[in-house]
Write a structure and sequence with these properties.
The complex is a heterodimer of chains A (about 190) and B (about 80).
Chain A (H helix, E strand, L loop, with lengths): L1 H5 L3 H23 L2 H17 L10 H22 L13 H7 L10 H10 L2 H7 L3 H11 L5 H8 L3 H23 L1
Helix pairs in contact in A: 2-3, 2-4, 3-4, 4-9, 7-10, 8-10, 9-10
Chain B lengths: L9 H8 L5 H4 L1 H4 L1 H18 L10 H6 L10
Helix pairs in contact in B: 1-4
The chains are: A mainly alpha (about 190), B mainly alpha (about 80).
Chain lengths: ~190, ~80
């Protein structure tokens, strides 16, 4: 399919999108937990992959290549977001209670939008909420292992991590998930 | 009597949870309540994970992607 696409067949490009849109979007959605943002990142991933097909090395699994680009997009976004985080108490430069109140984030008084309703339905189960509490690097490893069925070796290759690190991340992730889910059941 | 007193490793427990652990090694679970408890807990979480659904992007996703993709001129 990739070599057909490289020859300039638009149908092959579309077939690649059709095959991978759900796995790629699902990974990104669970990483960022925002439908619109996950879709933007998925779009960015496919555009990068399809416009860069000439640099694709066939000895590397195509799905691994696309997951690698998607995961990098998600991690970059999460890093940028953590740098942009605002304090709920207002601007750090606010020195009086009035300034703090004027610059504080207002939460909890807005009705749920239709998109938020969908997100709550899709990602609201206990296991999804537990996954959301994992570190991003644990989250991508656990998704590739158990949702995509990747071997430890394939995950190591995709995420460019040592095999031992991948095993550690996955074991720790499952332990943390068990703790979160046990807390819920107690 | 315990047929194999050596406790299962994390990798072996994962194999067992997937039904892939050799029967000779799985025998250990019949006699070791420690490993059995750990294996049952692990299997439960793995089952929850493998049943997670895949989500679809909004309709028209492929068209939005293709609008920004440069298809090379067909050499055929």
């Amino acid at each position: 399919m990739v070599s057909w696409a490289k020859q300039g067949h638009e149908a092959a490009f579309r077939e690649l999108v059709r095959r991978y849109e759900r796995p790629v979007f699902s990974l990104l959605y669970r990483m960022v937990r925002d439908r619109a943002l996950a879709e933007d990142l998925a779009q960015e991933t496919f555009i990068k992959v399809l416009n860069g097909l000439t640099s694709y090395r066939p000895e590397f699994k195509f799905s691994s290549w696309i997951f690698k680009i998607a995961n990098n997009a998600a991690i970059d976004h999460l890093r940028r977001r953590s740098l942009d985080t605002l304090s709920l108490d207002g601007s750090p430069s606010a020195s009086t209670p009035e300034q703090m109140q004027a610059t504080a984030l207002q939460l909890g008084d807005r009705a749920e939008s239709p998109l938020q309703h969908v997100e709550n339905r899709e990602l609201g189960s206990a296991i999804e909420r537990a996954i959301a509490r994992l570190r991003p690097e644990y989250r991508s490893c656990i998704m590739l292992r158990h949702v995509e069925g990747y071997s430890y070796e394939e995950i190591a290759e995709t995420l460019e991590l040592p095999l031992g690190t991948v095993k550690t991340y996955i074991h720790r992730a499952r332990n943390e998930l068990r703790v979160y889910l046990d807390d819920r059941r107690d | 009597m315990n047929p194999n007193p050596q406790h299962l490793t994390t990798d072996e427990i994962e194999l067992w949870a997937q039904g892939l652990l050799p029967a000779a090694r799985a025998l250990h679970l019949t006699d070791c309540s420690l490993c059995r408890t750990e294996a049952d807990r692990e299997r439960k979480i793995i089952l929850e994970l493998v049943q997670l659904p895949r989500f679809a992007p909004a309709p028209g996703f492929a068209d939005r992607v293709m609008a920004q993709v440069q298809v090379p001129t067909s050499g055929v």
